[in-house]
Amino acid sequence: MGSTSPLDGTASPARRAAPRVLVVSDSAALGHDSRAHRVARAAAAAGYDVTLVGRADDSPPPVLPGVTVRRVDVPGTLAGYRAARPRPGLRWPLAYRSAEVHHHRTARLAVRARMLRTREAELSVRYRPLSRQAVARAIHVAARLGHVLRGTWTRLRAAQYEAAVRRRLTPDGALDDVVTAFVGLTARRRAWRRLDPSLLDLEAAYGPVLDACRPHLIHARGRRSLGVAVRAAVRAEAAGRTVKVVWDATDCSALTPAAGRRAAAARESDERAHAEQADAVVTACAAYGDHLAARLQSARPPLVVLNAPVYADAPAHASAPEARGRSAGAAARASAGAGVSAAPRATAGAGVTAAATTAAGVTAAAGATASARAITSARPVTPARGSAPVRNVASARAEAMVAPVAAPPVTARGGVRAACGLGPDVPLLVHSGGVAPERGLLTAVEALPKLYDLHAAFVVPDPGDERVRLLADRAGALGVAARLHVLPYTTPEEVPAFLASADIGVVPVHHLPHHEVTLATRYLEYAHARLPVVVSDVRAMAAATLATGNGEVFRAADTADFVRAVGAVLTNLPRYRRAYERSGVLRQWCWQTQAGPLLALYAGLLDEAGHRA
Questions:
Q1: Rounded CA gap, 98 and 83, in Å?
Q2: Please, are residues 86 and 168 in contact by the beta-carbon 8 Å criterion?
Q3: Choice between 506 and 414, residue whose per-residue pLDDT is larger
Q4: Residue 20: which H helix or E strand, with range?
Q5: What's the rounded Cα separation, in Å, for the pair 500 and 409?
Q6: Position 202 pLDDT exceeds 80
Q7: 20 to 182, 210, 561, 606: CA distances (angstroms)
């Protein structure tokens, strides 16, 4: 095995006999799947032969040292069939029977309208004798009348087609519920095949790739990847090979009810069919791990591994904001409109009790405790004679604690402050992540008029998203469009260094079950950027913030309280930054600490299967 730390971002060349590990991701943007990247890099640096498999998209493939990246095109043929060929039934008897016919008829109608306008112009500019002009006009009027009638008929059929498509995409009617219940009762564990055909599209695309790679262990990122991994393991077993499957159940949004009955039934059927066949379960949240343990009734509890960044040296501008030339007057001006005092305070209505704060093993101890439980059954790998040994948990942690790795270089754009074109004395808050309404970004936008010279940067996966445009429109209506900056994602390993030049990281999420129980990845990225945080009063992150002292808590969706919290942090930035080093929490919330138990789990599973390095 290579002698480098499994978490420093570099990997030694894998030996020929190294076990093959596949990390399978169904993320829509493989280049931004930080969890998959960290898992793959750690396994490669530990000496495994690692392949990362994910969806193909328009972005360039990620470059990970020691990792082979394979991107697979998933056409979505089966899932798209429902929308492409809806069943009109009795409610929409005139609907077009396919997307092709719908597009053809509506396009032909649009072209016909343009041709008639051209003919109208021609009749008005070209000279003809009166008799010929009258005949041409009469023919044109008849053609226009025919176009109106045909247009009315086409639009009627198109409207019924679009209504049928909407129903197929969101099957939440009474008849749909009856069909869903019937499929669930008759097909039971196989109901997902009818209820969510997109899972079959994944099997068609990923299955041959997994078989060709002949892995010894498959790390399935998310529920949707689990079935593909389990079926590949079954086929391998029939061929005389043993493949271990690790289910990385990091999507805590499964705690939130599905959008409809059909989606909920498909999710339950898929999980019931495949979860029990996983050899081990990994999650990023202790509460969700307990939920899974209760549902699966597994003898081995899920291993908790936070999706935390690598612990690196603090960027100079993160540890010493004064070096940027930031004056106390700028902070005071930013908070002047908030009407807050300089002394920060905890939110009275946060709903985080002292017991919750103490129980904020969600913060520092939950990952380590659950990890220790899950690792007790994992036996260390016995290395081959003359080869370098695989690190066990204790040695991996010991190495990780010796010294942090060097801070990664920031992209050519520089940090987030440079990307926004802002000077060092301009207060800046940042949010990194998606822009779904439940993320609470509207709260941050509506607070800008009350924080007079504060700028906000939203680092989003797709700056062209319609929801981003709605936020920008709202900022324009409030007269603060010039202070809202929208930036695209950077690579996962560069995120903390990229964000570090901001002043505050915000997590203004609303109260949803999965928000309550987990430390969001962006929260951990803010911490490693040494940014003070302003978070809503969701349980886990509020408890972590109050226990660590690295920021302020506000009432979710309360703009006035958000303004108070931001103003309080801006008046004493160094105090909140020092909380990270004072508490030492970053050494627990880091990939060096979190990945050790995961590698030991790999070693134990591979040893059970007889795949020794």
A1: 9
A2: yes
A3: 506
A4: strand 20-25
A5: 12
A6: yes
A7: 42, 11, 51, 10
Measured CA angle at 367 (ends 354, 258), to 5 deg:
85
Tell me the per-residue pLDDT of 2-20, one tens digit each, with 9 for 90 and over: 444 445 544 444 444 699 9
**Strand segments (E) across 405-513:** 428-432, 455-460, 484-488, 504-507
The rounded distance, in Å, linking the Cα atoms of 239 and 233 is 10
Rounded CA separation 508/519 (Å)? 13
CB 173 within 8 A of CB 89: no
pLDDT score, position 170: 77
- Going edge to edge, which strands form the sheet with 428-432? 484-488, 455-460, 428-432, 504-507, 533-536, 551-554
Single out the residue of 111, 89, 25 nearest to residue 62, CA to CA.
Answer: 25
Q: CB-side exposure of 465: number of CA atoms within 13 Å? A: 17
Q: Is the dihedral of CA 393, 399, 404, 408 positive or negative?
A: negative
How sure is the predictor about 473, in pLDDT bands with cuts at 50, 70 and 90?
Answer: very high
Q: What percent of the chain has pLDDT over 90?
A: 51
Contact 76, 196 (CB under 8 A): no
> Whose CA is closest to 566, among 488, 500, 499, 508?
508
For the stretch 97-129, pLDDT in tens is: 888 888 899 999 999 999 998 988 888 887 778
Alpha-carbon distance of 365 to 566, in angstroms, equals 28
What is the spatial distance between Cα 595 and Cα 134, in angstroms, rounded to a whole number?
A: 84
CB atoms within 10 A of CB 315: 21
Q: Which of 59, 67, 36, 50 is nearest to 521 (CA)?
A: 36
Mean pLDDT over 308-318 rounds to 76
| Contact in structure between 299 and 379 (CB atoms under 8 Å) | no
How many angstroms separate the CA atoms of 543 and 53, rounded? 36
Helix (H) or strand (E) holding 72, with range, is strand 67-72
CA distances from 391 to 36, 48, 365, 381, 512 (A): 21, 12, 22, 9, 39
Give the integer Cα–Cα distance in Å for 247 and 488. Answer: 30
Per-residue pLDDT reduced to its tens digit, 349-407: 433 433 333 333 333 333 433 333 333 333 333 333 333 333 343 334 334 443 467 66
Which secondary-structure segment (H or E) carries 114? helix 99-125
Which position has the token pair 């990229």?
Answer: 498
- Whole-angstrom Cα distance, residue 145 to residue 403? 81
Q: Are 169 and 198 in contact (CB under 8 A)?
A: no
Helix (H) / strand (E) containing 81:
helix 77-84
The reported pTM is 0.78
What pLDDT, on a 0 to 100 scale, did the predictor assign at position 445?
Answer: 97
Mind spelling out the 3-state secondary structure of 295-339? Answer: HHCCCCCCEECCCCCCCECCCHHHHCHHHHCCCHHHHHHHHHCCC
